[in-house]
Amino acid sequence: MSIQDILLQQLANGLILGSFYALVALGYTMVYGIIKLLNFAHGDLYMLGAFVGFIALSFLSDYIGDGWAGIVCSMVLSMIAVGLLGVLIQRIAYVPMLSAPRLSILITALAVSMVLYNGVMAFTDGQYLAFTTDLNYEGVQLGNVFVTNTQMVLVGSSLLLMIVLYLFVHKTLYGKAMRAIAIDQDACRLMGINVNKIIALTFFIGSSLAAAAGVMAGTYYGSIHFFMGFIIGLKAFTAAVIGGIGSIPGAMLGGLLLGLLEAFGTQIPFIGTEWKDVFSFGILILLLVFKPTGILGKTEIERM
Amino acid sequence: MANFSDTLGEWLRPQKNRMFILLVLAAIAMLIPLASSNYVLEVMTNVWFYVMLCLGLNIVVGYAGLLDLGYAAFFAVGAYTTGILTSHFGVNFWLTIPVAVCCSACAGLLIGGPTLRLRSDYLAIVTLGFGEIVRIVARNLEITGGASGLIGIERPSIFGFQLNQIVHFYYVFLLLAILACFVSYRLQHSRMGRAWQYVREDEDAAEAMGINRVAVKLYAYVIGAIFGGVAGCFFAVKMTAISPETFMFQQSVLILLGVVLGGMGKIPGVIIGAFALVLFPEVFRGLGSMRMLVFAIVMLIIMLYRPEGIWPAKKS
């Protein structure tokens, strides 16, 4: 393979990885933008999404098979279930803590994350589960680069989800309310916006996007595990920061960029796949130190 | 209940009574090995070890109010420094401690220096990333033994007497825990301790009073790192084997939970937290794989209903 082919192959790998990161990063960024909470449990919602999708698919496969129809149905079910769970978490754990010191709410989020992954660990005995689908490895040969249909559908559907989200946030009244709350909650209350409802809606959307990414990752990698949310949570946060936390287009851009950076980063001599995570966390640290506002983020002067 | 705790509080006020309680507790701790099985000793040694780690993290989280999610990294730096120096270079264990102190302090400076200006939640993520980086580096380098880690670390000896029984390590870790309490206590009531408290409560006001907030936070960070490093040294020789998986993110979270559970910023609170941390999984061993779930739920409930911890620091 020539250099060009390797680069093209990595472009394909990077895009698919990046679209998972972007979907998870969107939830981080939306929640952060609206209530300035770093939701540590977000990566675990992604993991739960994969598990709910797995359960749904194992029921549905008897009726509609485990091809695309089954996967899409179980993805929708998983998005609804995990979205509702996200709202429940917000109601139980975050609403009472909103006036508490910042440290307390961060630790509460950490505790929620522990409850979720320990819960799944207890029920699966910490085993990997095989996410079986009857997708095949057919695909398109582009020069020397091979792209499977699955890869294309996954990237396409995550782009579709992102476009729908973008339209929702920018073209509907609810989206307008969300953007307004991110700017000034108190003013929104005075204008008659039901702030609590909109925050719950934000949690719902963010969590269901993470669930969608979880089901897609299950489909793509073929196995799921209770700890799969941890690393991607961290990576997605990195992606959100790269794009500028609080900015929705920023999260999409940051996710895709991080996916591509990782895919190409593994091709640099001396940085093999085993150094991949060091590479992206290194980027995160450098970015936070030198440009904490990210690419599309607004500069805000705020002291903690 | 309230009445009882008031009376107890009243009785505990004079210094004399407090010293009495402390002496009784110290005597009990000293005498435990006389009347207990190896299992109990093993668990109690672990308790003292976590007391030290939690007190170290307490300086960062409790005193200075900085959320650190990568504390296991400093513990790893200490453990690997001792492990590498003793097994690859044959250095005497006691000589590796100062080296480990320097290394963990440097690690603290390296990560704290550029990041302490960041907002608290960004700092949490950076420390988390740093913790993962240290673990992955330990897993990928040759000198740290790769994924299988270092094995056969030599047990230390003191004046020709080799420490190799659990009883020996019990006393070593008890001594370390007492030392950690003493240092924490002195730090808390020092000029630096007051500066930490000030910065934690109101950064801007502290700065207006002439406190260099970045320097003060950096001190907390480096001192916390040194606690972790020293604990790591002794951990390495007690276990005689260390592997990267010991220093996973969960380890950092566990130590943090110990600090938060008992009451941030208060030494007895942190000690109670460390006890709860180690004893809970042991006592509830019967729950099997559910016990960490139960632990996490208890943690969440404590955060929701008692965010200041079991025995919170008094606000004056």
Can you give a write-up of this model?
The complex is a heterodimer of chains A (304) and B (316). With 304 residues, chain A is mainly alpha-helical. Chain A has one domain (3-134, 146-237). Chain A has 11 helices and 4 strands. Chain A has helices at 3-35, 42-64, 68-94, 102-124, 149-171, 173-183, 185-190, 195-221, 228-243, 248-265, 276-290, and strands at 129-130, 139-142, 145-148, 223-224. In chain A, strands 1-4 form a two-stranded antiparallel sheet. Chain A has a two-stranded antiparallel ribbon with strand order 2-3. In chain A, helix 1 (3-35) runs parallel beside helix 5, helix 1 (3-35) packs across helix 9 and helix 6 (173-183) packs across helix 8. Chain B is mainly alpha-helical. Chain B has a domain at 36-249. Chain B is 72% helix and 3% strand. Chain B has 13 helices and 4 strands. Chain B has helices at residues 2-12, 15-31, 38-63, 72-89, 93-115, 120-140, 166-188, 191-201, 203-208, 213-239, 249-262, 267-283, 291-305; strands at residues 150-151, 157-158, 161-162, 241-242. In chain B, a hairpin with a 2-residue loop joins strand 2 and strand 3. In chain B, helix 3 runs antiparallel to helix 10 (213-239), helix 3 crosses helix 12 and helix 5 (93-115) runs antiparallel to helix 10. The two termini of chain B are 23 Å apart. The model of chain B has no long low-confidence stretch (mean pLDDT 84). Classes of the chains: A mainly alpha (304), B mainly alpha (316). The A-B interface holds A 38, 92-93, 96-97, 100-104, 106-108, 110-112, 114-115, 118-119, 121-122, 125-126, 230, 234, 237-238, 241, 274-275, 277-278, 281-282, 284-285, 288-289, 292, 302-304 and B 61, 65, 67, 69, 114-115, 118-122, 124-126, 128-130, 132-133, 136-137, 139-140, 203-204, 249, 253, 256, 260, 264, 289-290, 292-293, 295-297, 299-300, 303-304, 307.
